[in-house]
Structures are given as C-alpha cells and as structure tokens.
Backbone:
C-alpha cells in the first residue's frame, strides 16, 4: 500500500492494520475497512494545516469530527482513446433510489487545454454516445446521489 509521503512511519503502520485486502489466487475477494470512528480519527489525524485552521484554529478537525461517513463506494476506472484523446471512464455502482438494488452510473471525460477542442470534442462525444443509445441526458451530482442513497 502507498500512503501520502508526509505520514510518519508509525502512522503508516497503524493505518495498514485498518485497511487491508484479502486475496485468493491474486484476486481480491474482500476489502476490510476501518470502522466509522476509526476512519474519522484517521482523517482528523492527517488533516492539512490550511484546512484545519480555515476559519479558526482546529476548524477542520471540528468539521471532520462532526461529519458523517458515506460509503465505501468502489468505482472502477478505465482509460482508452477516442478521437485522438485519452478518454477516462468511471463506473460507479450506487444503491438505486428504492435502496433495494444497484444502479450503475458511468462518466466519460477527457482533458485538453484548448477551449475550442474541448467544446468540439464534447459535442462529438455526446453525439457518438447518443447514436448508440448510451447517453442519458440528465444532470446528476454523484456526491449528492451518494449522500442521498448511502
């Protein structure tokens, strides 16, 4: 496992005991996550100084201490190419609105520094996805869906 470079060796060792994977024949069969309280404690221990002192000394730690943990949400990311650009796909399995099954949300994105290219490729990608019946013309915020459903 790789942790942020500013985490001390002692802290890194403690964190390894919380998050580990169980593998059978090199396939991950189970992730073991820390409890909600341990997750909160781990996050508070590593809160960046600028965030912690945003409005007053200890503000970030106070906000995290009062927070609710959502998830885990285990998304899968794939990278390919489309129309000469590197294309990123993320598949997010979320509880459906009834809370009885899984609904999959897929995002496709690419990066460019040119505004004209971004606009042209954006429109072309939408057209391509629509032509295959793969595009859902609906705005939704993943973060809000996660908070509503988990």
Residues:
């Amino acid at each position: 496992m790789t942790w942020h470079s500013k985490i001390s060796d002692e802290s890194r060792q403690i964190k390894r005991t919380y998050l580990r994977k169980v593998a059978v024949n090199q396939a991950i069969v189970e992730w073991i996550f820390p409890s909600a309280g341990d997750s909160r404690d781990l996050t508070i221990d590593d809160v960046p100084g600028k965030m912690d002192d945003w409005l007053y000394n200890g503000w970030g730690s106070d906000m995290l201490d009062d927070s609710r943990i959502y998830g885990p949400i285990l998304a899968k990311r794939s990278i390919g190419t489309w129309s000469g650009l590197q294309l990123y796909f993320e598949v997010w399995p979320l509880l459906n609105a009834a809370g009885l099954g899984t609904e999959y949300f897929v995002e496709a994105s690419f990066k460019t520094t040119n505004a004209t290219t971004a606009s042209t490729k954006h429109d072309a990608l939408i057209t391509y996805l629509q032509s295959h019946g793969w595009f859902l013309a609906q705005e939704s915020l993943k973060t809000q869906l996660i908070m509503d459903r988990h």
Summary: Strands lie at 20-24, 27-32, 76-82, 85-95, 102-110. The CA atoms of residues 80 and 87 lie 5 Å apart. The chain has two domains: 9-65, 76-149.
